[in-house]
What we know:
Layout: H1 2-14, H2 19-24, E1 26-29, E2 36-38, E3 43-46, H3 48-53, H4 56-71, H5 74-80, H6 88-100, H7 103-106, H8 128-141, H9 183-186, H10 206-227, H11 232-242, H12 248-260, E4 267-274, E5 287-291, E6 295-301, H13 308-325, E7 328-334, E8 342-344, H14 360-368, E9 376-381, E10 396-401, E11 418-422
Helix pairs in contact: 1-4, 6-8, 10-11
Amino acid sequence: MEKIKVARLALGSKAPYFTPGLWALKLVSTEAVPTMAVDEGWRLYVNPSFADKLSERELVGVLWHELEHLLRAHHARAREMGVDRRTHRLWNLATDAAINDGAQELGFTLPEGVIYPERLGLEPGGLEEAYYRALLEQAEEDPFQGEGDGLEGGVGAEGDGASPPPDAAEPGRPSAAAWDHGSGADGLERPWELPRDHAEHPAVGEVQAAQLREEVARRVLEHHRSRGTLPAGMVRWAEGIVNPVVPWQRILQSRVREGLRRVQGRTRATYERPHRRQAAFGRVLMPGSYDVRPRVAVVIDTSGSVSDRMLAQALAEVDALLSRVGAEVWAIAVDAAAAQAQKVRRAREVVLLGGGGTDMRVGIEAALELRPKVDLVVVLTDGFTPWPAEPPRVPVVAGIFGDAGTFTGAYAVPEFIKAVTIPPGA
């Protein structure tokens, strides 16, 4: 393991911004791993025989590559993408391509046969998720060959049908294209990984891992500001860690759920369904109950300044939210006047009428006049509209196409309306 320790020192000297992550790695020497791999707990598994076959420069490059899997939280991103035992090879290829894309610019040497975007027919500079989707599409045209989950073998190994055959490697030295990078790359535990509470090599927890990523990201940005020599992808990653931007979809989801919190779980009595403890009341008939579906009015700006693409994107998000809570949806198209409310199963079923000016006050008022009463009003607008002067009697969530904070005067969004900015390019 002396050789890998020397490589860690060399990498820290070459790229000092990686130091916090490098020294958090727990080195585990094992013959169970054919090459090198990491798990979610920041344990670096090294086959000493394999490490001896690499040159010093290659070993530094491979160490950098494995650390990048952890810094980029590939295990968590894999779960968000729904990666499983059937598709994990494609995810590993996608992440390898995204990492190795920056090796030359950073001055790292990697072994022959590693995966680059061009080798997979992909454009350089892309994100892992985009590469993964592209590879999934390729796989649909040329389905996997072979059986099994592949967790015992290499990622993208020859014969799995998920990648081009790896380049030739010297005898006794595995091709880098066939490596299995461990759960740190795709979130799927391997048989050879240590338990999290291992006495000698305990796992790094998620909180500490997040702190390590943030510290490395801060150092990356400081280095970039002082020297400006880092790849754009690395700077983009660091900016996302230090100054995270919460997706508008997540904010909209939170606002809608907050608005419906007071009515979710509400029940209504009925004699058509017996009380669940009727036997305890003898001959006295007690009413049962049923859950009341929340009623939501979606007020849609159909003025000429709102594009069909804007509305389609926003309606898709509202659809997803309301279907999860089982809401009853009424849609109202509004420009300068409100059209007839339409009861729809999905918000996207609404017939969009209008095209003139905009006045969301009449749309919100039309929503409040619906009977039975609605529990929440969701407004989708470009923001160039006057708003009610007084708080409505039910919560109002507004999705604004543009920056909600820039509107002033009559168009200023009042504080009692929970506004969500929807970027124009969303």
